[in-house]
Description:
This protein has about 400 residues and is α/β, with parallel strands linked by helices. The protein folds into 2 domains: about 5-45 and about 290-405, Aspartate Aminotransferase, domain 1 (Alpha-Beta Complex); about 45-285, Aspartate Aminotransferase, domain 2 (3-Layer(aba) Sandwich). Helix content is about 45%, strand content about 15%. The protein contains 15 helices and 12 strands. The chain has helices spanning about 5-10, 15-25, 45-55, 70-85, 100-110, 125-135, 150-160, 185-195, 235-240, 255-270, 275-285, 290-310, 340-350, 375-390, 390-405; strands spanning about 35, 95-100, 120, 140-145, 170, 200-205, 230-235, 250-255, 325-330, 350, 355, 365-370. The strands form 3 sheets. Strands 2-8-7-6-5-3-4 form a 7-stranded mixed sheet, sandwiched between helices. Strands 9-12-11 form a 3-stranded antiparallel sheet. It has a two-stranded parallel ribbon with strand order 1-10. Helix 8 (about 185-195) links the parallel strand 5 (about 170) and strand 6. The chain is globular and about 60 Å long. The two termini are about 30 Å apart. Mean pLDDT is about 95; it is low at about 400-405.
Amino acid sequence: xxxxxxxxxxxxxxxxxxxxxxxxxxxxxxxxxxxxxxxxxxxxxxxxxxxxxxxxxxxxxxxxxxxxxxxxxxxxxxxxxxxxxxxxxxxxxxxxxxxxxxxxxxxxxxxxxxxxxxxxxxxxxxxxxxxxxxxxxxxxxxxxxxxxxxxxxxxxxxxxxxxxxxxxxxxxxxxxxxxxxxxxxxxxxxxxxxxxxxxxxxxxxxxxxxxxxxxxxxxxxxxxxxxxxxxxxxxxxxxxxxxxxxxxxxxxxxxxxxxxxxxxxxxxxxxxxxxxxxxxxxxxxxxxxxxxxxxxxxxxxxxxxxxxxxxxxxxxxxxxxxxxxxxxxxxxxxxxxxxxxxxxxxxxxxxxxxxxxxxxxxxxxxxxxxxxxxxxxxxxxxxxxxxxxxxxxxxxxxxxxxxxxx
Length: 406
């Protein structure tokens, strides 16, 4: 049987290589501290779980749900945007529920991409930002991830020299994996650029509520006047409410783009289980104490990571948002690349991190560290890392010949 076209366009999933080594180590009895996947370990809020239990088993809730999301949920998301960003949305035409932001991105790519269409994507960036379009037959042109003047210089060059002209630009701030943050001024310039060059803007705002400066919450691109003409924004309940496994997200913004996404989804799914949508509505409409508590937990973990890893000899710049630190590989190991270094971390330090190469070739000098373990475990990871770094000469002596031989 011949290889399948879309599968051929997907490279091996590099995270899986680390996962296999991690699973093998655990099978041998190793206590692996997993700071690799951004998988929240906090429980979903109590009132949200209570609403789920209350709704399960009610008449009609076991039936097919709504692909677009039940009306109450779409209204709750619109109310959140009004409250948080001062952005007014029509829940009937400008809001759609998705099975997490990942599914929303992938299906938006299916909706708007013709074979050969060029899409501008930050590098490094979360894999679905590029591969959603590659699976849809698109072509990716990389641009820098940091929201600065270099970003716009590269953007201008990409638009001028891409044939055919790009159709869309992906952004993600607070960024996964880099934790970069964008200002409203940056978004103003971005919207003006998109309008001038007839680009669709697709903004991933999954980490909107995971920030550590209470005076500078991350903005939405839709706060810019006129952004609704060109932009759709994706959000997720995974991190805000620790509901990652519930698969609940949203796309909001330009009505024509939302309608295109809705049409694709109507062929593919009937939406999330109705009790999950009802519980998600309760989360969006409910008290925000749980969000403030979540921020405090992640801030304390971030501080523990920066302090303890710094004391271990691995300096980490404190991220201002997200649940990740984007960290340069320590100098003795730079030549190995992020994948081999991440394997070594599991084998020699019992700590799992995400190799930067998994987010694009420009991430290969870095690893992503997720603060998804408690402070005690993070400090234990730092002690393991200290021992690992102290034996760097011996470790490299054993590894480099193998790498050269390969």
